[in-house]
Structure formats: structure tokens, C-alpha cells
Amino acid sequence: MIKKIAIIGSGVMGSGIAQSFAVSGYHVTINDIKEELLNHAQNRISENLSLLMEEGALTDREKQGALANITYSVDLEGAVRDADFIIEAIPEVIELKLNLYRQLEEIIKPDAIVASNTSTFPISQLMEKASSAERMVITHFFNPGHLVPLVEIVQHDETKPEIVKTTMDLMRKIGKSPILLKKEIAGFIANRLQTALMREAFYLLKEGVADAEDIDTAITAGPGFRWAFTGPIEIADFGGLDTWQRVFDNVSPVLDQSKGAPDLIRDLVAEGKLGTKSGEGIFTYEESTVSQKINERDRNFIKLGKLKMEKEEVL
Ligand SMILES: NC(=O)C1=CN([C@@H]2O[C@H](COP(=O)(O)OP(=O)(O)OC[C@H]3O[C@@H](n4cnc5c(N)ncnc54)[C@H](O)[C@@H]3O)[C@@H](O)[C@H]2O)C=CC1
Ligand SMILES: O=C(O)[C@@H](O)C(=O)[C@H](O)[C@@H](O)CO
């Protein structure tokens, strides 16, 4: 029975993941290496819960209940000692993750499940030195973790079936849409799809086919508009497989085949232009613009999430 959750890493993803559990009634302890970072996470969670209230997705009582469900601690052992389910959302640095798993094996309950929110590391690499690999999985949440429904669950050969079932059930209990990878593959599913599309988007930008704004609108007003409710495989059926056969035959040969990050991204990163985190990337941002854009983004995601929930209740 999963009752107590521990989230290790209170950054972009950890705070949102913790919020998802707290809103659903679970007691969550968030751990990080500095009190200051935990304070930032606490403020971010409170603001995110207030936005959900403003959009009618949460009552004040539910917000207060969620806040009461969360504990913040720089004490790793204290955070995980009684936890039934532990998710690490620390930086995508393999040495950090492997070192953390070594620490956890000494201090967690014998039946605790350990999950990683890694974006890219194969589970076999994460578990290679673990002595309790049978109770380890990947739970890949998407940014923002408290609003995007998808969680990719990645198992490996040694993962016990009951661990996978418990993990899938737990994700559904916190209102997520878990999908289970049946075999290990680099980049999992959504990041492979997302990266393939982004590779083509940056190719079109480099070739001067359209401005960045129009390339983005091509998705948000086109396929992206559909994808919130109809995925690519179903789109093929709806469009007609005979037509899609011709589309594949005509377009596949001319798609970009690059094997690494676009030069534009490499050049910008080399100049320290990292996007919103540095104030400039492909686009330029004023400090206030970023928070306004995130606020608008999240309000739209909340409205979309409510629409999708209404659809699922009807089905
Ligand atoms: N940022 C994103 O859009 C997404 C990131 N991810 C994955 O989630 C993980 C976390 O990413 P972010 O939240 O973006 O990183 P982040 O850098 O925003 O947060 C990481 C947090 O972990 C803390 N930390 C580092 N070492 C620690 C330790 N030993 N114990 C406790 N806390 C520690 C850091 O102080 C920081 O607060 C990564 O594996 C990343 O690939 C997955 C989906 C989306
Ligand atoms: O976009 C997301 O939230 C996830 O697909 C990711 O894992 C991202 O690729 C993230 O790692 C980088 O923003």
C-alpha cells in the first residue's frame, strides 16, 4: 500500500511532481541539498495551487490540504526513511543519479519503490550497480509536471511485475496518464517523437522556409491542435492509410537526417543564450515576459486538462 512519497530534487520537475501527489492526498516529503531551493519550491507550489484555484480546478480547501501534505527537508535519510515510493528528479547527470541510488539502498524501506524522472538514460544504465534493481523503474513526467498528464513508465528485465502494476496504478490515482514501454529504447517514446519533430522544425528555420513564429504556429494551429485528442497513429486511420502511404513515400526522402543538435542551438548555447533561463534563446524575453508566458501557458494547460477530463468522464 503506497501512502508516503518522497521526491528527491525540488527543481523544475520535482516540485510539480510533488504537487501532483499532494493534491491527490498523499503525504509527500521533498528533499533538496539547500534550504533556499526548498523555499523556492514551496513558493512555486503555492503559486501553482493558487492558479489552479483561480481557474476553478481546485477549491481553497483542496489547496490548503495539498499544502499540508507536503514536508520540505534537506535531510535525505529523514525524507526517505518511511517512504513507500521515491522519485528522484535530480539533474540529468549519471554520476549524480548513481551516487544517489547507492545512498538510498542503505536507508530506504526494503519494499520501497525507487523511480527516476530521467529524460534520456536507459534504465539498464541507471540500475547497473543497484542491488535492489527489481524494485526500480523510470517514471518520466513531463514539464510542467503538475499539469501535463503523460508519465512514461520504463521497466527492465528484473523489475517485478507487481512493481510495474503498483506504479501504473499510482500514476492513475494522481490523475496522470501513464504509458508502459514494453522494451528499452533510447529517448523512450515521447522524447523520440518530440525530438524528430523539433529536428525538422529547426531544419525549416535554418533553410529559411519560414519564421520561427510561423513554424511554431504550424504546430499549435495544426497537428498540435489535433494531438491533444487524437494521436498520430489514429490520425493516419482518420486521414486514410492510402493517403498516408503516399505522404510517407513523397516526404520521407526529403526529411532532415541530422544526427545531432541543430547548429543554431549549439551556437546559441555557446553564446550563453539558453532560452528563458538566460533571457534569450531563439526569441528574446524580458524578465516579466517569462513569468507572464508561463502564467498564460499554465492557464491554457489547466483549461485543456479540464476539457480532457470531461471527455474521459463521458467515455
Ligand atoms: N526540465 C524538464 O523539462 C524535464 C526534466 N526531466 C528530468 O528530470 C530530472 C530533473 O530535471 P529538472 O527538474 O529540470 O532539474 P533542476 O535542475 O530544475 O532540479 C534538480 C534539483 O535537484 C537538486 N539536487 C541535485 N542533486 C541532489 C541530491 N543529491 N539530492 C537532492 N537534490 C539534489 C538540485 O539542487 C535541483 O534543485 C532530470 O533527470 C531531467 O532530465 C524530465 C522531464 C522534463
Ligand atoms: O518536454 C518534456 O517535458 C520532456 O520530454 C523532457 O524530458 C524534455 O526533453 C526535457 O528533458 C528537456 O526540456
From TrEMBL:
<dbReference type="InterPro" id="IPR006176">
    <property type="entry name" value="3-OHacyl-CoA_DH_NAD-bd"/>
</dbReference>
<dbReference type="Pfam" id="PF02737">
    <property type="entry name" value="3HCDH_N"/>
</dbReference>
<dbReference type="InterPro" id="IPR036291">
    <property type="entry name" value="NAD(P)-bd_dom_sf"/>
</dbReference>
<feature type="binding site">
    <location>
        <position position="143"/>
    </location>
    <ligand>
        <name>NAD(+)</name>
    </ligand>
</feature>
<keyword id="KW-0597">Phosphoprotein</keyword>
<dbReference type="GO" id="GO:0050104">
    <property type="term" value="F:L-gulonate 3-dehydrogenase activity"/>
</dbReference>
<keyword id="KW-0520">NAD</keyword>
<keyword id="KW-0560">Oxidoreductase</keyword>
<feature type="binding site">
    <location>
        <begin position="9"/>
        <end position="14"/>
    </location>
    <ligand>
        <name>NAD(+)</name>
    </ligand>
</feature>
<comment type="pathway">
    <text>Lipid metabolism; butanoate metabolism.</text>
</comment>
<feature type="binding site">
    <location>
        <position position="119"/>
    </location>
    <ligand>
        <name>NAD(+)</name>
    </ligand>
</feature>
<dbReference type="InterPro" id="IPR006180">
    <property type="entry name" value="3-OHacyl-CoA_DH_CS"/>
</dbReference>
<dbReference type="InterPro" id="IPR022694">
    <property type="entry name" value="3-OHacyl-CoA_DH"/>
</dbReference>
<feature type="binding site">
    <location>
        <position position="32"/>
    </location>
    <ligand>
        <name>NAD(+)</name>
    </ligand>
</feature>
<dbReference type="GO" id="GO:0070403">
    <property type="term" value="F:NAD+ binding"/>
</dbReference>
<comment type="subunit">
    <text>Homodimer.</text>
</comment>
<feature type="domain" description="3-hydroxyacyl-CoA dehydrogenase C-terminal">
    <location>
        <begin position="187"/>
        <end position="285"/>
    </location>
</feature>
<feature type="binding site">
    <location>
        <position position="277"/>
    </location>
    <ligand>
        <name>NAD(+)</name>
    </ligand>
</feature>
<dbReference type="InterPro" id="IPR013328">
    <property type="entry name" value="6PGD_dom2"/>
</dbReference>
<comment type="similarity">
    <text>Belongs to the 3-hydroxyacyl-CoA dehydrogenase family.</text>
</comment>
<dbReference type="GO" id="GO:0006631">
    <property type="term" value="P:fatty acid metabolic process"/>
</dbReference>
<feature type="binding site">
    <location>
        <position position="92"/>
    </location>
    <ligand>
        <name>NAD(+)</name>
    </ligand>
</feature>
<dbReference type="InterPro" id="IPR006108">
    <property type="entry name" value="3HC_DH_C"/>
</dbReference>
<protein>
    <recommendedName>
        <fullName>L-gulonate 3-dehydrogenase</fullName>
        <ecNumber>1.1.1.45</ecNumber>
    </recommendedName>
</protein>
<feature type="domain" description="3-hydroxyacyl-CoA dehydrogenase NAD binding">
    <location>
        <begin position="4"/>
        <end position="183"/>
    </location>
</feature>
<feature type="binding site">
    <location>
        <position position="97"/>
    </location>
    <ligand>
        <name>NAD(+)</name>
    </ligand>
</feature>
<feature type="site" description="Important for catalytic activity">
    <location>
        <position position="140"/>
    </location>
</feature>
<dbReference type="InterPro" id="IPR008927">
    <property type="entry name" value="6-PGluconate_DH-like_C_sf"/>
</dbReference>
<dbReference type="Pfam" id="PF00725">
    <property type="entry name" value="3HCDH"/>
</dbReference>
<dbReference type="GO" id="GO:0005737">
    <property type="term" value="C:cytoplasm"/>
</dbReference>
<keyword id="KW-0963">Cytoplasm</keyword>
